[in-house]
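Reply to dn_fold:

You asked what the input looked like. This is it:
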Amino acid sequence: MNGIHYRKRFLKGLLIAVRILISYKIARVRGVFLSRQQREVRLRKLHRSNAALIREKALEMKGIMIKVGQFLSSRKDFLPDEYTEELAELQDQVPPHDFTE
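and this is what came back:
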């Protein structure tokens, strides 16, 4: 793989992170007008949706992205349950991939 490929992968990962960050910023602004219970429900849904996005993109990008997702799925002390549950699908359900590819 050449340097351009790595830059594209990095940029793609960065755009995913920015997209997720913006989604939380928007949720925070909208949350001002909601009750605490409504905010918590919406936040859990947002966690699930963002975790699904990370899982889908990890499967698409393969390699280190899958490894990062697998690692994060084990961090129940660090991430909300919605993330660890969604990313746990990267543990055993990913087909083996030849290292040389």
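The longest helix spans residues 3-31.
Hope that clears it up.
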